[in-house]
Design a protein that fits this description.
Elements lengths: L2 H4 L1 E7 L7 E6 L3 E5 L6 H19 L3 H4 L10 E5 L4 E4 L12 H4 L2 H12 L27 E5 L1 H4 L21 H9 L13 H9 L3 E7 L2 E7 L2 H10 L8 H7 L3 E5 L10 H5 L1 E2 L2 E2 H5 L3 H9 L7 H16 L16 H14 L6 E5 L10 H13 L3 E5 L3 H4 L4 E6 L8 E6 L1 H6 L3 H6 L14 E8 L7 E7 L2 E6 L5 H12 L4 E3 L12 H5 L1 H13 L22 E4 L7 E4 L10 H4 L8 H5 L3 H7 L3 H12 L16 H12 L6 E5 L7 H16 L3 E5 L3 H4 L4 E6 L8 E6 L1 H4 L6 H6 L1
Parallel strand pairs: 3-13, 3-14, 5-12, 12-13, 18-23, 18-24, 19-22, 22-23
Antiparallel strand pairs: 1-2, 1-4, 6-9, 7-8, 10-11, 14-15, 16-17, 20-21, 24-25
Helix pairs in contact: 5-14, 13-14, 14-15, 25-26, 26-27
The protein binds adenosine-5'-diphosphate (2 copies) and zinc ion (2 copies).
Family: Belongs to the ABC transporter superfamily. UvrA family.
Protein name: UvrABC system protein A
GO molecular function: ATP binding
């Protein structure tokens, strides 16, 4: 191989999915951006070919024994891939991990912080693991390091505005004049007509929290020694300290409403032992530092002036700076990772790699701009450049013009989607792209149009005094019957306001998000949208047979592959391979079933049709309506039988949208629906949103995309910044008004 070729990853004859024998060279140690309309084949090159081959090569380094435990990676359908270095895929899969995985643990900052406390904390208490809530030595013994515990929901158990006679105690068994109630009144003794809010602190303590004690009471003239304890104390001992699961189901149901999960009373949510919490640096303990926003934490850490700590301080600040650089300064180290959004997860993973010392790695990113406001995209760009400058090859799938601009090399895939895509339509510099006659080139040159004829709302839905997470007493009206876009920098509070506060009060709203659709490997667009039911009926009546035959989940399925169309074969000393089923040839049905035709096509041939082809083929009104909805959301290129598990997050979101399109008078909530969409697809998405609004629906969209924001009837801009510096509505109004709004960062980007 020539010296020149060594500087490129060379791919020849790639044919995965829709790729048409694609050959290309990707410069090493440079940033290459893949763009093109959705479904054109970007992921087929980047993930299904390049990343898949790298994973396969990596797995080959392991012994056969180990390989048996690794996921099976089939060889991609390509003639050759040369010069590939190890690939690291940084995607938007959420970081799972439960309550023991936090921002601090995942970025490796928490272990270093623990080391710091074990070296210079006052008083010195021992090894670094004494500061870990995942370690038996460090965890709070009350809650086992979870930080939360079950407790009585006092708001539901007692009503302070009432007297005992008025039924201030709302727990089961305490109705006025009941046995328990009488015991309480007598044990006090309390004035049964005094409102609890008028009790002295001492009386209230007695009534609710007093420990068990013997009291002499008078029952029908007879003195008896009775054990009494505070009402909440008793409830806690009976139903919370003992496992409530051991009680009868009826009792469990009766007490459940009065039990809620709250911060552990011993560690107050800090998760750590009292010894660990008593250890401080400059007056602050490790839990206090972990609950600070990164932006503030970095200042506190820098102030630690101790020669012993210097190298540790340096290492922590370096990592914290990476978090600030990527726009995550509003997060805290104790934030549980499974509460981070997809975009935030990807950026956290990115930081992990920046701190690492790997070089000559191929980094692959999937739309890293997701969740970032235009203001913060430059930070992402700087990060990608840092990775490149450390000597790595950076490959990015991206639609955002501001990221595409920074590429050393651009690959534009097209010209259209599915079978009408799969080729490379442009390769080269950004300047060259602007002159290229491709969909990307053309759209790059357009300028923003601000909507002027905004619709008048039909009414409003009010949010009052919201304070969840960082929201600072937000009261805002969301207009009905129009398209509202909620925007603002990352961490400003958009999701909190809409997905939590608003949806908490309007659970009947239709939520169109990017979570996976379909429950089984057999789900596909036809089954998901209900088209399959109509198609089965049509086949059955055309051939006068039972419609069950036409389901690959039942009788009609090929017996060899159980309707999957493929068989996995384990070869003793080779990679296990996925082969098309040799009985049905991948068509999933029995021979007999395939002999039944509808207008000359078998059921397998129908499932191989794209939405576009099926629209030409079917006349059935219901089928056409459902197909048209899929076509309208830009899924023309998808085949009816393509497994849903192969759809991207953005495609899943659009297929959900397609199956909800016919509703009227509903509230639709969408979270970044432009994810995965090329600039030229966004026009279609806007057309659908407008159609929904014209049909009498209310549409609320969380978005950073300027094309969408500029076409809103109403904009709610959150800010001014992320985290504690955000949480306010900085602007409400029309697109034409926002560009004059002094405090709106978003407005500056629409000019
Ligand atoms: P992009 O990343 O540009 O949006 P993809 O590479 O995901 O496009 O898809 C290109 C084409 O290949 C589309 O028609 C898509 O439906 C199809 N495709 C993708 N993955 C699979 C798969 N696992 N099986 C069958 N078809 C697929
Ligand atoms: P946006 O949607 O504008 O990016 P979010 O609503 O996700 O903003 O976040 C607003 C603030 O609330 C941020 O400081 C964020 O860290 C915090 N936050 C969001 N979700 C949670 C959660 N589950 N637990 C704790 N804090 C959260
Ligand atoms: Zn605790
Ligand atoms: Zn088969």
């Amino acid at each position: 191989m020539s010296e020149l070729n060594q500087q490129y990853i060379v791919i020849s004859g790639a044919r995965e999915n829709n790729l048409k024998n694609v050959s290309l060279r990707i410069p090493k140690r440079r940033i290459t951006i893949f763009t093109g309309v959705s479904g054109s084949g970007k992921s087929s090159i980047v993930f299904d070919t390049i990343a898949a081959e790298s994973t396969r090569l990596l797995n080959e380094n392991f012994s056969m024994f180990v390989r048996n435990f690794l996921p099976r990676v089939p060889q991609p359908d390509t003639d050759a891939i040369e010069n590939l270095s190890m690939a690291v895929i940084v995607d938007q899969k959420r970081l799972g991990g439960g309550s023991h995985s936090t921002m601090g643990t995942i970025t490796d900052i928490s272990p270093i912080l623990r080391l710091l406390f074990s070296r210079v904390g006052q008083p010195f208490i021992g090894q670094a693991n004494m500061f870990s809530f995942n370690d038996p030595q460090g965890m709070c013994p009350e809650c086992n390091g979870i930080g939360r515990k079950l407790g009585v929901d006092t708001g539901k158990a007692v009503d302070l505005s009432k007297s005992l006679n008025e039924g201030a105690i709302m727990l089961p068994d305490y109705s006025v004049n009941s046995w328990e109630w009488n015991m309480v009144v007598q044990a006090g003794p309390f004035d049964p007509d005094k409102k609890l809010s008028d009790y002295s602190e001492d009386e209230l303590e007695q009534l609710l929290f007093a420990k068990a004690r013997k009291v002499q009471m008078d029952f029908a003239g007879k003195a008896m020694n009775i054990t009494v304890e505070g009402v909440l104390e008793k409830f806690t001992n009976k139903y919370i300290k003992q496992d409530v699961k051991t009680k009868s189901e009826r009792t469990q149901r009766a007490v459940a409403p009065y039990i809620s999960e709250g911060p552990c009373s011993s560690c107050r949510g800090a998760r750590l032992s009292q010894a660990a919490l008593g250890c401080r640096i400059n007056g602050l303990n490790i839990a206090e530092l972990s609950s600070m926003e990164v932006g503030q934490l970095i200042r506190v850490i820098r102030e630690i002036d101790d020669p012993v700590a210097a190298p540790i301080v340096k290492s922590i600040t370096e990592r914290l700076e990476h978090l600030v650089d990527i726009g995550l300064d509003y997060l805290t180290l104790d934030r549980e990772t499974d509460t981070l959004s997809g975009g935030e997860s990807q950026r956290v993973k990115m930081v992990k790699h920046l701190s690492g010392s790997l070089v000559d790695v191929t980094y692959i990113f999937d739309e890293p701009s997701v969740g970032l406001h235009p203001r913060d995209v430059h930070r992402l760009n700087e990060l990608l450049q840092k990775l490149r400058d450390k000597g790595n090859t950076v490959i990015v799938v991206e639609h955002d013009p501001d990221v595409i601009k920074l590429a050393d090399h651009i690959v534009d895939v097209g010209p259209h989607a599915g079978s009408r895509g799969g080729s490379i339509v442009y390769e080269g510099s950004f300047q060259g792209l602007l002159e290229a006659d491709t969909l990307t080139g053309t759209h790059m040159k357009r300028s923003l149009q601000l909507k002027r004829d905004c619709r008048q709302p039909s009414g409003k839905l009010s949010i009052k005094d919201a304070t969840l997470h960082n929201l600072q007493n937000v009261s805002v009206d969301i207009p009905t019957g129009v398209l509202t876009v909620v925007t603002g920098v990352a961490g400003s509070g958009k999701s909190t306001l809409i997905n939590e506060v608003f949806l908490g009060r309007h659970p009947d709203a239709i939520v169109i998000d990017q979570s996976a659709v379909g429950v089984s490997t057999r789900s596909n667009p036809a089954t998901y949208t209900g088209i399959m039911d109509d198609v089965r009926k049509a086949f059955a009546s055309a051939n006068k047979v039972n419609q069950g035959l036409f389901s690959f989940n039942s009788k009609g399925a090929c017996e060899n592959c159980q309707g999957l169309g493929v068989v996995y074969t384990d070869l003793a000393f080779l990679e296990s391979v996925k082969l098309p089923c040799e009985v049905c040839g991948g068509r999933r049905f029995k021979e007999e079933v395939l002999s039944y035709k509808l207008n000359g096509k078998s059921i397998a041939e129908v499932l191989e049709m794209t939405v576009e082809q099926a629209l030409d083929f079917f006349q059935l009104k219901e089928v056409v309506r459902k197909l048209q909805a899929m076509s309208d959301v830009g899924l023309n290129y998808v085949t009816l039988g393509q497994p849903l598990s192969t759809l991207s997050g953005g495609e899943c979101q659009r297929i959900k949208l397609a199956s909800e399109l016919h509703k009227k008078g509903s509230i639709y909530v969408m979270d970044e629906p432009t994810t995965g969409l090329h600039m030229s697809d966004i026009g279609h998405l806007l057309a659908i949103m407008n159609r929904l609004v014209d049909a009498g629906n209310t549409v609320i969209v969380i978005e950073h995309n300027l094309d969408v924001i500029s076409q809103a009837d109403w904009i709610i801009d959150m800010g001014p910044d992320g985290g504690s510096r955000g949480g306010q509505v900085v602007f409400e109004g029309t697109p034409a008004q926002i560009i004059d709004a002094e405090h709106s960062i978003t407005g500056k980007y629409l000019m």
